[in-house]
Amino acid sequence: MTDTTNNTSTTEATDETGGTGGSTDRNDSPAGRNEETADSISRAPSRRSLIGWGGAGLALGAAAAGGAVAMARNGDDTEPTAASTGAAVAFHGTNQAGIATPVQDRLHFAAFDVKTTDRAAFVQLLKDWTEAARRMTAGHAVGEGAYGGLAEAPPDDTGEALGLKPSRLTLTIGFGPSLFDKFGLADRRPEALVDLPKFAGDNLDGNRSGGDLCVQACADDPQVAVHAIRNLARIGFGKVVIRWSQLGFGKTSSTTPEAQTPRNLMGFKDGTRNIAGTETDRLKKFVWVEEKDGPAWMVDGSYLVARRIRMNIETWDRTSLQEQEDIFGRDKGEGAPVGKAKERDRPFLKAMKPDAHVRLAHPDTNAGATLLRRGYSFTDGTDGLGRLDAGLFFLAYQRDVRKGFIPVQRSLATDALNEYIQHVGSAVFAVPPGVRDKDDWWGRTLFSKDSKDSKSSTNSTNSKEA
Ligand code: HEM
């Protein structure tokens, strides 16, 4: 199957030397970095030279992050095999990984606020983050690793992912509306990056909403996802601070229709009618930003809406099966739409109750609006009243929020499901295009003076930044 989500995926199965050998684990402390070339090591800043730089001692130079791992960047990878071998997902590509690539089992999502007012320092952070992300997604430790360096300094990597496989880790960055109030970026804010309006039933907590930046870390191993966010936060110390974060488990939607559809915490199959990673036409139509959408720096990017949706689990669990099925417009066992036999049968909306979730969310009810859903379940303990603080951390990617989430969520104002859920957190982000190659970095197209070159070679990008 052709992969249009990434034009570099096949070449990235080799490391930068063109070799095919290399480690897939994270034990690449100084003692274990044999797979890196002498050149790549000599180009990396020495650990000694970085000590004192924010106290972190981060060696985030040009060390090669490639490893000879089975790359799983295509939407058509054999998901179970990739997952069981702990494969790596290619970091470089036209689009960022973590959107159309197969959905992993676990999530750690973090929204950050920017604390520095120094544009150059912030750009340097984006470059440092990119290098760390490049290494971690390939299964390597950050910088010079977690041990074996100078005893006087904290290690570059926190260490809890040592020995763990890449676990299909993807790291996806997004820029929130408030970032565009900073660094003179106001005229670069995309029109499609609107502040979300207040929706019926919203009960949003400011401490779980908004953010200048976000990083979505998905992996099959929760420790790998948590390690990634923790290390990015550590690298950002003094420049950015985590505003809120969310752990997720049990993906609630799939971008690989051949895989078994996962179930959400209400027990229903979720993601049946999602956009698949292989549906290049629908991805093009509904997910990826095109030249004519503008601005140029967002081409091949997307927009992300994140909503923390609390479920009133205990009330739901006392609801009859018939009512539960009426609420969704699908049956609980097979997941078939009302009046149909199979999960994948085409829904006949008029057979459903007028306030059924699927009927109201379906593109036919919303002038064709279609989302790529990529949410996760969450359970954050109990709320002090003996109820589970649990629900759905809803993540949806789209080409334009005004033609995606907003009309669908408005349509859901009369959703029968609303009696059992409440939206308690909300954020929206512009997700820039993918990092093209080893010289590229997250946000280059936004911060470079000439964003029109977003598609060209990135070999001299460092000198182009504003
Ligand atoms: C806790 C909240 C939610 C739950 C439990 C939930 C659950 C479900 C389930 C079980 C389905 C049917 C299977 C499928 O096609 O995926 C579905 C479909 C869908 N949901 Fe939700 N959902 C929730 C919130 C939302 C929100 C906030 C939106 C968007 C604003 C949304 C948009 C959709 C869409 C677009 C579909 C597919 C409709 C179709 O094409 O047939 N859902 N949801």
Describe this structure in words.
- The protein is of the alpha+beta class.
- The protein is 18% helix and 16% strand.
- It has eleven helices and nine strands.
- Strands 1, 2, 3, 4, 5, 6, 7, 8 and 9 form a nine-stranded antiparallel beta sheet that branches.
- A hairpin with a 5-residue loop joins strand 7 and strand 8 (388-398).
- Helix 4 packs antiparallel against helix 5 (222-235).
- The longest helix is centred in the N-terminal third of the chain and has 19 residues, at 119-137.
- The radius of gyration is 22 Å and the shape is globular.
- The chain starts with 37 loop residues before the first helix and ends in a 19-residue tail after the last helix.
- Mean pLDDT is 83; it is low at 1-25, 27-80 and 451-466.
- Bound molecules: protoporphyrin IX containing FE.
- Involved in the recovery of exogenous heme iron. Extracts iron from heme while preserving the protoporphyrin ring intact.
- Its cofactor is heme b.
Comma- or semicolon-separated keywords:
single chain; 466 residues; 11 helices; 18% helix; globular; disordered N terminus; disordered C terminus; Deferrochelatase; membrane; EC 1.11.1.-; signal
